[in-house]
Please model this.
Amino acid sequence: MKLTEEMKAKVESILARMTLEEKIGQMNQESPSIVGGFDVPFSELIEMLTDGRLSQEEFEKLMSTAKQDFHEDEIRAGLVGSVMGNDPRKANELQKIAVEESRLGIPLIIGFDVIHGLRSVFPIAIAEAGSFDDALFEETAHMAAKESRAHGISWNFAPMIDVAHDSRWGRVSEGPGEDVFLGSRFARAKIRGLQGDTSSEQNYVAACTKHYVGYGACEGGRDYNTVSMAPNQLFNTYLPTFRAAMEEGAATAMAAFNDLNGVPCTVNRYLLRDILKESFGLQGFVVSDANAIRECVIHGIAADDEDAGVQAANAGMDMDMGTHIYKDHLKKAVEDGKVSMEVIDEAVRRILRVKVWLGLFEHPYVPEDVIEAYEKGIPAGHAQLSRKAAQESVVLLKNEGGILPLDSAAKVSLVGTLADSVDEVTGAWAMGWKKEDCVTILAGMKNSGLDVAYYPCAGPEGGLNEDELEAATANGDVIVAIVGETTAMSGEASSRADLTLPGRQKEMLEKLLASGKPVVTVLMNGRPLALGWEAEHLPVLVEAWHLGIQMGNAVADVLTGAVNPSAKLASSFPAGNGQCPVYYSHPSTGRPAGKSKFTSKYLDAPAEALFPFGYGLSYTTYEYSDLKIDEKEDCLKISVRIRNTGSRAGTEIAQLYMQDVAASLVRPVKELKGYQRVFLEAGEEKEISFGLPKKEMGFYDNDGKYRLEDGLFRIYAGTSSRDVLCGEIFVSFKV
Ligand code: BGC
Model:
């Protein structure tokens, strides 16, 4: 977000004309609320939806008949700065009230969770991150920005850039996985995609980086849980994605629900003011997470609502999502001297900057022709991009016996309820898609021309239909089993303690396997699962995540071999539940897991991940050789040769890691420092090289100070965090 002098002057001139109430109004975000009408409270309805007592369809039907309060009177009175929603006509209606009927005509900033696409849903972030394709990250974000604007949304609550090591946490699905380097590149690309194309107001939105900060380290992987960590961990692992996003000009940030070392992020002055605003230079504003200011009372850090509001405002929380605490209490707090006018002015200045930069004053409305175009369907090219993103996100975990790609003449028995459910392709935090745009795996396989017969048999929920199972094994030449999790099993408030396949899916796989027919297992899930049994017994495993509206076509492309899979895991997979958290960049212990009993391991489970970060196979094979490390003045130049040793062309994701062998703090056993997508024809060999800037070889100490320490470094290049060539070099950082 780049502000011109003219924009800044405009902000100041508006600010100078505002009353205290109007200023506080800008700091208040509203969502439509339901007025009366149901036999049960709205919160109970949401619970019913979550626990399955109410289907999505029934819920939507109820909502369409419900009377909603859109806070028109408050908008007219200048008491609302932001609303949530994705209905373009409603957006225009509310915007018209703000612009034409409020005293100062300040437009609303309309926010929405567009995490991995709106109408054109792309793969969930943990899947897309596995493409290691920065250009793709940017392109999908740019398309999401355009679709958002077309729906009246000018502020996306994305990207979610929480590094997370524990896949029990359901929200791992929303972010770029376990690694800080990949996460930072992902963050930068997403900000460029969302905010970079300012050539027309229809092309960009304000990004909202979230959840600031440490949310991915919630204790035990339990959502909303407490977070404690040493400063070096905070600075080296959890803050860098946000630092990168701020360097790229991210307009806003959302504070996380959790406390960090005893202070909830919502009221954490050190995190919000000292680090985010002063050190990282956030130009726009910070919004609380939903209801989070009130939750400070429940956290036991504030005596009551007013106290929570005072603490939040003083800590640098600029906008209140949904509690009305600012609206109800800040005026008195200012009059009582608990919150200064400077604090209020700073918050409002930040909010106005974003509104001015977005061009909302000049172009507050979605043009009617744009609304009508989307009513007819998604624009040409959107489905293709979604399909490309999905193809690039499929990870081949195991392929024994050459079962894949499928023989085009084979009779396929497709099993698993997930294969035929439109609701399951888009994954967590996808809102705004239409059923008619979604391609299930069954539909995709039929589109590809395969001879497919479908038998639901079993899914993540419910029983096992033995008759269907018998028919499936009797009829097909090959069985393709779709197993995994429903959408509702990952995302917010969806932590799981058991990461094995839910329901009777494993039993189904055992029976399919017992038939003696070749079995291809395709996983649809929102987190790394514990696949110890599956990896040992099943010949083929394909990780397909929740891939978005084109899921079915993309999965068929990979199964038929039309596309050679190239994605790698952005998050390590455990063999069993008790291994969580498991991640490749673990700090070195004094007793690394080894043969001796007295080493860091389990008696009853491996210490290492089943499938590590960066792992993923292809229908061809690659060989690495000739690792060379050259020292230049301000960087290391690392080159390696890669040869496609198989009989198909493919794209290999080559990875560069380093280890700081002896430092003043314990450092990770390996840290990702570079990656490249390398296309190789069958038999082709290429030399690729990475530049590793010396200034990026340091780390933060416990005072948050960045240190570059001379010493020995191990440099690794290879196909995954586990399978690498290794070299060593002594590096001196002195000039
Ligand atoms: C989530 C946020 C989201 C917000 C608004 C919260 O419950 O934690 O990620 O942006 O709701 O929908």
In short: Residues 113, 157, 210, 289-290, 492 surround beta-D-glucopyranose (CB under 6 Å). The longest strand covers residues 650-660. The domain at 622-731 is CATH 2.60.40.10 (Immunoglobulin-like). The CA atoms of residues 158 and 208 lie 5 Å apart.
